[in-house]
Hints:
This protein is α/β, with parallel strands linked by helices. The protein is built from eight helices and five strands, in the order βαβααβααβααβα. The chain has a five-stranded parallel β-sheet. The C terminus is likely disordered.
Amino acid sequence: xxxxxxxxxxxxxxxxxxxxxxxxxxxxxxxxxxxxxxxxxxxxxxxxxxxxxxxxxxxxxxxxxxxxxxxxxxxxxxxxxxxxxxxxxxxxxxxxxxxxxxxxxxxxxxxxxxxxxxxxxxxxxxxxxxxxxxxxxxxxxxxxxxxxxxxxxxxxxxxxxxxxxxxxxxxxxxxxxxxxxxxxxxxxxxxxxxxxxxxxxxxxxxxxxxx
Length: 211
């Protein structure tokens, strides 16, 4: 099998990235690559005290995501990835630094390491940017009831959304498909699933035959 596409599903916490990755894997036969939050040794500590654990958390994500990108580069067929290394830097680390939760020294160290890593990576073929309002994100986060996410505050999600918008506005490494998921319940609504998947596959060469 020849090399397919590398698609990144990007967006804020609770916007529906994992749901869309699962749908694309099921309906298109693409290889899913999910986040590794369940294995994250700092995540609960980070949500409880981001000033103390923010740098540790971001370095862990950077290392884990680099490993994911290396694995993706070795795969054949189309791969759909739940969040990317690029977002870790442009959104999450940047937000922490802007809030004063990541010191200038730690941010400089992170950026130096990130720059060295990203030069070794082939960029994805498409970024799919999912969006939703903060109230919708909070409702979806509450619905999935992950213990580590209980402390997430609206202001934090709003900060991430601003950084996502800034990142997308300046991202030029590949095309971006923006999808507003407000009112779209991808886990339950078949029509919404078909619409979103149709828009996504139209941005690529035809590879997904929808039922």
